[in-house]
């Protein structure tokens, strides 16, 4: 175990960084958005293009949560935000996946594959990787940037990752944008994003569906 940690220390630290950063950075951005709401309301088309380009990188490298960006976009742009958000998610997924590949260089998968049982489980999971990626993206609580890294490390095919990931993100993206469109105040939206019984039910439904589906495929892979 210690040898595994030593050989993958940078990889593990990078993954930990991706899990922690959204909580730290999003609070600072929230304060700025609340205090500059009128300026954001006056954004031009070019301003929004720049904002979404920046969001590609902030989401890819875990500086902002994807749900946070979708909520704000829904609040300020309404349903016009759907297409740019979808494109931004796709690009951020690609950036996060490829960056993790460069950082890890296949070492993580190689070390895991040295253990026959683990190798067999990974091979079983890869048979259902499209469905597993889709289910992982469905949940609003699974960190976007961390899942990019984990799928990259596990040897997931890029085409499956981008396609299934895009499809899996659609329900949670649409839900987040809808919640944003319903908000009356930006401060209330940021502090209580899931307020309302309908939104809570839908969020729990996405989380529950994701957990049950992932649990099924993991159990199937382990028992084979």
TrEMBL record:
The species this protein was found in: Arcicella aurantiaca
Keywords from the named record: Cell membrane, Membrane, Transmembrane, Transmembrane helix
InterPro entries: TMEM64, VTT_dom
Membrane topology: Multi-pass membrane protein
Membrane spanning residue stretches: 12-34, 40-61, 68-92, 132-153, 160-179, 199-218
Every VTT domain range: 65-181
Subcellular location: Cell membrane
Name of the protein in its database record: TVP38/TMEM64 family membrane protein
Family, per entry: Belongs to the TVP38/TMEM64 family.
Principal subcellular localization: membrane
Any one Gene Ontology cellular component term annotated for this protein: plasma membrane
Pfam hit, one: VTT_dom
